[in-house]
Amino acid sequence: MNQSFLIPLASNGHTQRALLGLVQPLAAFGTAHLRALSTSRCGLNEQQKAEGSQASTSGGEQHEQQQRQDSTSSSDHAQNFYNTFKAGYEHVKSKAAGAAGGGSGQEPAAKRLLQTLAQDLREVLLPAQDITSATRVYTGPVASATYDGPTALVLARQQATGWQKAWDTVQEKLSGIPVVSKLLNLKVTDTAAYKKGQELVEDLKDKYETSDHPVVHKVEDLKARMFTGSEASRAMREIRVRDPAFDMNRFVQSVKLDAPTVVRAFLKHDLEALSQHCGPELLERFAGIFKHFNEQGVFEDPSILFIGDVEIVEVRLMDDDPFIIAQFHCQQLKCTRDKFGNVIDGSANQIQRVYYFWGLQQERSPVVTAEGKVLPPRWVIKDMMWQSMLALV
């Protein structure tokens, strides 16, 4: 949660009283519940002692009666606990509604606090269910882009306004005067003064561009930072032009969704599965690596035990296309076998941490399905690097 929002909120007197009003019923509820538990426990102990002395003299019938009394006591205790909890919950709920919705001024701050808390809990306890793959190519039917209507361009004369008609009439009357007609037909670009000034501007521009003065370089750097921004900001601007609904948090979750599929296909040497996520240059590189392993009859264990969180390393432009470098790590088995299944490197119980770096490039246009749903531009895995850093076991 944003700390800059909580500090001024907690320092406000009205909000503090609202929060105290929410906490006090919970504390009272907890104290009452503990007291009820201790009382019921003491009562049950005394009852067990008394019934134990009776059971020693009365035999099997007293034992059955004791079991029935214990079950009745447990059900009554559970019912009392439920009633107490329900009463405390209703009390806290009413207090929260009064603090969040009543009055004006500082009450909306408490309402925003409760909404933020609820949203944070919902995101942690209930992960989003609509996260889709960011790198997988869409292979379903797409909408038809054919157009059967007219395509030829037609010139249409624009209707003149009243002001344009009046100006045309004045021009016609003044065109009969030779001096005015000459002024009206005169072009500034044809004058000697304009040509001389244009040559002077071109000379100054050439001298400025070819100058090695440090002041000129500082001015150019400052102008580039002010008007073009950093490379990351220009890349993000291009990303949002292609996908206005782009969200970096959802993108990170989508990459984490694709990570086990791509890594497992890489360990299994499955080029067909990798072709759904990777670009042609990376697939060609994988084909050479897999061919070398297959010729030697060596295979890696594709077991993946854990995948860490995805981190964004860099956002940049490459060939005018947005390019994002993402990093994550996997805990996987360090075990290499031959074609007979014998372990030739590592062991079946040795765990290693492997760091993967993906270079993802955004495509230029979205995809429209046959149902009319617009899918955002795909992020193609253009490059992948991996390195084993730490053996855990």
Automatic annotation (TrEMBL):
Gene Ontology BP, a term: protein import into mitochondrial matrix
Residue intervals of the Tim44-like domain: 232-373
Localization per Swiss-Prot or TrEMBL: Mitochondrion inner membrane
Organism: Volvox carteri f. nagariensis
Polar residues: compositionally biased ranges: 45-60
Keyword Transit peptide in record: yes
Protein's name in the database: Tim44-like domain-containing protein
Region (Disordered) residue spans: 45-78
Keyword tags: Membrane, Mitochondrion, Mitochondrion inner membrane, Transit peptide
UniProt-recorded Gene Ontology molecular function terms: protein-folding chaperone binding
GO cellular component, as recorded: mitochondrial inner membrane
Family designation: Belongs to the Tim44 family.
InterPro entries on file: NTF2-like_dom_sf, Tim44-like, Tim44-like_dom
